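pasting input
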Amino acid sequence: MRQVAIAGVGLVKFGRYDGQKGRPYREIYELGAEAIKKALDYASMEWKDIQVAYGASMFGGLGVPNQCTSRLGMPGIPITTLEGACSSSQQSLRQAYLDVANGLYDVALAFGAEKIPPGLIADTLSPVWMLMMGFNLPAMYAIDTRRYMQESGITEEDMARVAVMERKNGIRNPNAFWYQGAEITIEEVLGSREIATPIRFLMACANADGASAAVVCSMDKLKSKSRAVTVVASSHATSTFGYDNLGIRVHEKVNLNCTELACKQVWETSGYGPEDMEVIQLYEAMSPSFLWDAEHCGFCKPGEVGKLLREGHFEIGGKLPANTDGGLMGRGHPTGATGLAQLIELFLQLRGEAGERQVPNAKIAFAHCSGGGPNGVCHVLKR
Amino acid sequence: MAASTKKQIPCRDGLWSIPSSLDEKPQLIGSKCPNCGEVFFPVNSVCVNCQSQAMNDIKLSRRGKVYSVSTVMLPPPQWYKGPVPFDLGYVELPDGVMIWTRLMGSGAGSFRIDQEVELDIDVMQVDDEGNEILGYCFVPVKS
């Protein structure tokens, strides 16, 4: 396989483009096209350089990727729509990477664009009879969390600490939903409205609109090789027997879950381990999943994550900064654009362009994203 | 189950057995794989573990233990129009299968992990025509 570089990235600030309460109204296609254009500009490339594209959206409806790209030109290239729930656009990057790594194309585009409805997201994953009995996604997170608390000793305060950290990071990120917002305290998180016990409002991701894009290419197509960021390894794993469609263990038989499986693959193929990483992204639509993902990805021993959080281990300035852009809670979560936004933050960190959030001299980074189904997608990037 | 003149409609047919006499109680219907012995709920025509297609229907144990539970405080976004708060959880049955379920028959928020519970059929919500939508749930075991 050939070495693959990320040549350029583009983000549209995660926020609300719904025309309500004085906010601007923008079509999903405009968001996607703007992110793509930014990525091309960053890479010093033009739309005609793109040979293949993978676009992601979860709520956009039919043909969103084509609608985004047709604002830029209609070259007739293959444009594939990817929907993998919350990890959709990290899967886009993976497909673009594989095409270039395997020599099918030299320059490929990955992107994600989303405008999501306000409030709790409608569930299209589960059978209607379960929905009629009251099934809902936050409750499934909550059920998993309650069991995890019992088994690991994790407390609600530990969960709150993740929410506080991520919003603090988001405040420093001009592309984040929470940019220039107010810091919150553990007490405020624990005093916020309950969604499904023990999950509270401020432990949940911020629904947002937005778009993300990245151009990947073979090394010979890079316009500048200075501080080039390469994709070292990429993995994608899906449900294994013994877990339900959200990844909750529902059987005494112990297989690796999709996150553990994706991590095992990415560590094996990259030749690196968790101990080598200098800045990371963990997926957390609800704050407790940061905690168990830190374990499942190998960044701490079972039961250790609460202590590490209290010590500031995952903060900017800590031993292993995580979700430096604010994560899903501080950056916001436009589902189809999220997975790639995680990689874009790592790219900026490795390039030394993360501004106030910069982790000094970071050279190697890891991202994990999850989606309903369930699926787990991981990447290791290196400068 | 409260007596009612309204029409009662199961949220889905075939999830539980309909008692043929007063002595009998409903049971959830699952599938057992004759090849590897794994048990599934609801019924599935293929064994997800070993891919055998010779699955047998079985009636599952009525009693189990709460594996985990959450009290839902906000109304779900669609399909469910019943009362809030309510409890959802997983119940572990001795058959070797975990059941996603409503937990009822005791105040919302009162269930505990490892609590012994048993199956019941109850009204989940009333639809726009006034019909009662039935679902399964687990309730505290009466001592």
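fyi The mean pLDDT of chain A is 94.
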